[in-house]
Each structure stands twice: as structure tokens, then as C-alpha cells.
């Protein structure tokens, strides 16, 4: 920001506009460590009992929070890993190789991306049932990966497109094989895209709710999103403070990732930085 | 090493870019491929280094037929127009890359890289990334990378196009020095005739996928085979005058100006349309065959002055003279041609 542009009026305005969201976030946090009388805004007392779900044995019919967290991690990490590896290779192919039906493939990939998940959910449900993957984490991973892939492939293709042809030609005339050229010369130039895509697909899987809810509703393959929903599903007197605590617990990794990697996440919108 | 391109043909889809072109590059010579944009210079270069597959013809490195060998196995060094340095590696690693691919031992690599860095004068810059180098320095790194594995041939695709004028002058002689010191055969692609004339042993002028003439710079300048070649070489360029043969003279179009023709050209029958080409240094006040006109343009070039002289029929002649003639814009002058230096061309552009 330049010196002839005073920043404080802008800051003030943005701060004011963000106030409702900030208030919500503050209360989300405050409520997880206090008790408040219904209808009041001021907390009565400090307590950690809303966080007891982390340590107590689960109630009957509920899963252990740690195994659910582990499931979520497995779900998010595998999705991210598969999306990254597939986009990395197919993005290159679509960007550089002179293959038949390339335009058709590109168009097809884009069309796939345009379908909202919900419109596909019934057919996916049927397919998983037929293949025996219904109610398993593997099934959800595969479906989520498939839905994330189109974007990933396009993003990586975009990054590959910014790498000059001549670098690859130089590599070939220097004696390197196509594969070596890709690994040693091209890959290092798309790694910002790689990191951003990995994070994005991790976050997308981490916050996925519909797919696990519909395709793997049972306890063993539960993830945090469905666990959260289960908390308030059948209770006559839902414990909203615990619900908020679990919510905060669920959101924590996301916030940490954003704090650490926000620079890398910006890259995906910038479409490739050199260096 | 001698490089022979024999009946080389290249097509992209349905369009034939180069049709049955033959080119012989002698061992240790620098050959310039000169031609206008889009004439197929880069295409020829890419065929020699194996990036483009040839659609017909043969390519020999020495006695070895490499027509169907992939790029990796040809041992060519290429300097690309934008240098194509690997941005994530420093200069040392860039130069070492071809050797690393060859799995050469570390100390050996180090020795070779340092030696070549010394040759191109970049010893002090080896730790820098390409982005931290100036255009000329990047150029030297690219040259070093192309030369480090002692290729059979060095290919340069418009190596000076991205440099400023002063650096271009410097790199011109640098590249020539390095090529002569290493004794490597080289092909220089350029569309700058000055570059080709000053750097190459021989020039191949290309037009629309054909080699029009292949000769040493001086021969080509003095004895161009077509008007295309004549107009391509020389700065300021040659001026052409249209006319028809009348006995042993040519009468310029729409005028009563007649100029003598040499015996060869005069053999054309009366009334044959022909063109004569006059280089600026052959149109001077002191030359014998006078022709009058009006100075319509003056360009001051420091050491020299460039004049455009418009004749009574609107045609224009150019003259380059050392400073101090005290001619003004609009002056009526009567300057002379060096008749024996005038070039004549038939209607199809061929030299008579
Ligand atoms: N991949 C391609 N597909 C189709 N046509 C091509 C391709 N590459 C080059 N051409 C055509 O081949 C012709 C020669 O191209 P080339 O790049 O060899 O020209 P050039 O002499 O190097 O020109 P410049 O001085 O502009 O670099 C041009 O008409 C160009 O349009
Ligand atoms: Mg070119």
C-alpha cells in the first residue's frame, strides 16, 4: 500500500463490516469454556466440561472422537495425495503431449467439474452399493477424489502451461529423458501449484459433509463432520456447548493450515509464480 | 565435424514448410542461416537437433546417419533465443546439467564446468540463479551449457535478438571467438544481415523454405544471385530501378533517363523489362555515369550521411557519403553511378 493512500479509514470500515463474524467467532470460543444462562449474553462461570468428549469414553452408540479424527485425517490426506498425484501427471499430459482427443478430454474434465455433488449422489450411492464399497471410508475417498480431480487437473495444466517449451527442449538436447526432464526441470517450476492444490484438496475433504453422511453413515467410518451432526441428531436435549466445542476442535486444523500456508494458498488464484 | 542435411523435407499437417533442402556444413565453420521471419530457419535448426522429426531426407553427422536418432543421442549443443536456462538452478548447476545426466564423476564435472566458465568469462557468477544475471551473462551461461559436453555441432537460434545494441556488438565477437577457440562447427540462425555478415564463414540465405544462395559473406554481397538476396544484404539497402532494354542501354520507366548496360544484360532483346540494383556506396558525386534528381531525405549517421535522391520519374536512389558534402534537403544534384558495380535482374528477379 502506497503512502498516499491512508489505510486506517479502510481498516476501520472493513473492521466494522466484519464485526458480526468476529462476534460469532468470539462467542463460539467463549461458549466452549463457560456456562451461560439461557437468554443471557454474559457467561456465568468458567468450565472445561464441554471438552470432556476428548477424554471420556464415548456414550453408547457414539464413536470415540480420536478414531473419528483419525478417519478424517485418513480421508483428507488420501484424497489430497491422490488428487495431487493424478493432477500432476494428467495436467502435464494435457498441457504438453500431443494426444488424440485432447480438446475433448479438456472439455469433458471441465464439464465434470460443473456438476454439483448432490445431483450425482444417488447414482454414486448405487454404484458404491454394487461394488461393495458402500459404508467404507475407501468408497468415500474414491468419490471425493473423483469430484476434486477436474479442478485439480485444470489448475495443474494451467501451471504447466506457464513453463516455457524451450526449457524442455533444452533438457532433451542436454541428453535427459522425457521423464527426467519432467521431474528435474519442469516439476520444480510448478511446485507452488502443487502445494496449493494439495492444501486445497485436503481442506475440501476435511470439510466434506454430504458424501460421508450419505455414503458411509455407520460408526466405523465416521468422520468429524458426521460425528458433529450425530451429536445433535437424536438427543432430546442437545448439548450445544459440547457441539460448539467439537466444532471448534474440528475447525482447528483448518485454521492452523490457513495461518501457516495462506501465502501458498493464494498461489492457486495467481496461476503460477516463477522462481 | 561435417554436418550434411540431404533433401530435408518438413511438413506441419498439410503445409510443407521446407521442401527438399540440402545443406552442407563444413567441419569447424560457422554457417549463418539468414532469412525473413517465417522462412523456416528455426524449423531447420530443430530438425538438426532432433526436436522436430524430419518428414523426408537424411541427416549425417560425419559419417553417422542420425536421421532417426532421438535428440538425447545426437550430441548437439543448442542456445535458444530466450536462453532457456533452468530457473531453479544456479549457473553452475545449469552448466553441469548435461554432464550430470551423463553420470560423470563429481570432480570431473567440476573441472569441466570451471574450464568452460573461464572460456566464456563467467567464473565469478557460478553461484547465481538465472534471474540474478543480466541478459549478456545469461547468454554466456547458455553458451557454456551448450558447449560443456563438447557437442558435434553448436546450434544458435537468434542468440543476440534479446540483447541491447552495445551488448550485441560485444557478444557477436565473443561468440565468434569462442567458436573459433573450440573449433566447433556451428549454425547461427538470424534475420539480421549484419550479424550474419560479421560472424559467419558462409551464409545460407533462405526464403520460403528454400536456400536461395550459399556463399561467403563478401561473395554474396558482391554477386547476389537474385534481387531477394541483394535486397537482404547491405545496410542501408540496395535501391532498385525499373526500366526496359534499349540497345545497349536501359531506359527507366516513365522517363527519358537512359543508363548504359553491361554486355551480358544488353543481350536481352529490345523492350525487355529489367531491373537494376544500385548499392548506396556506388552512387557518389564523383562517379562517371551521371544521373540527376532532388535530395528528398537526409539521415545523419555520425560518421556518414545517408541521402535519398528522387529522380524525375519518382524512383529513388540511395547514397552513403562521408560527412561534409554540405548538401541540403531539396538540393538538385547530379551524382554518378559506378557502372561496373550495377547489378541487373530479369523480371523474375534472377541476376543477369
Ligand atoms: N508447430 C508448427 N505447426 C505449424 N506450422 C508451424 C509450426 N512451427 C512452425 N510453423 C510454420 O513454419 C514456418 C517456418 O517457421 P520457423 O519457426 O522455422 O520460422 P523462422 O524462420 O524461424 O522465423 P522467425 O525468424 O520468425 O523465428 C512458419 O510459416 C510457421 O508458421
Ligand atoms: Mg525462429
From TrEMBL, chain A:
It is found in: Cell membrane. CDD domains: TM_PBP2 (cd06261). One of its GO terms (cellular component) is plasma membrane. It comes from the Bacteria. GO terms for molecular function: ABC-type maltose transporter activity. Residues 69-261 form the ABC transmembrane type-1 domain. The keyword rRNA-binding does not apply. Pfam families: BPD_transp_1. Keywords: Cell membrane, Membrane, Sugar transport, Transmembrane, Transmembrane helix, Transport. It is a multi-pass membrane protein. The keyword Translocase does not apply. Its main location: membrane. The chain crosses the membrane at residues 12-30, 73-92, 104-128, 134-155, 185-206, 242-261. GO terms for biological process: maltodextrin transmembrane transport. Part of the ABC transporter complex MalEFGK involved in maltose/maltodextrin import. Probably responsible for the translocation of the substrate across the membrane. Belongs to the binding-protein-dependent transport system permease family. MalFG subfamily. This is Maltose/maltodextrin transport system permease protein MalG.
UniProtKB/TrEMBL annotation, chain B:
It holds the Pfam family OB_MalK. One of its GO terms (cellular component) is ATP-binding cassette (ABC) transporter complex, substrate-binding subunit-containing. One of its GO terms (molecular function) is ATP hydrolysis activity. Residues 3-233 form the ABC transporter domain. It is found in: Cell inner membrane. Keywords: ATP-binding, Cell membrane, Membrane, Nucleotide-binding, Translocase, Transport. It comes from Roseibium limicola. One of its GO terms (biological process) is carbohydrate transport. It is a peripheral membrane protein. This is ABC transporter ATP-binding protein. Belongs to the ABC transporter superfamily. The keyword Ribonucleoprotein does not apply. The keyword Translocase applies.
